[in-house]
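user: can you give me the structure for this one chain? tokens are fine.
assistant: on it. calling the predictor now.
[tool input]
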Amino acid sequence: MRTVSISQKPVAPSTATDRLAVSVKEAATLLGVSERSIRTWTQAGKIHAKKLGARVLYPVASLENLLQEVDATDVE
């Protein structure tokens, strides 16, 4: 039987902690979801975004809060 190894590209821990906010693409990468999911959660008010000029940035604290809420509600 052949074993297949699946590996994901690791995200450096310093990426999330060195910056206060990240782009939609970076937020999606950090959470392991699609950019569309990030935008949907933003519209639903689950995560907050800040618009600076033409850029939309996601505070890292908002992403961490989302994970804490998921941990608290989804654990059985």
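assistant: here you go. Strands lie at 21-22, 50-52, 55-59. Residues 19-74 form a domain with the Multidrug-efflux Transporter Regulator; Chain: A; Domain 2 fold (CATH 1.10.1660).
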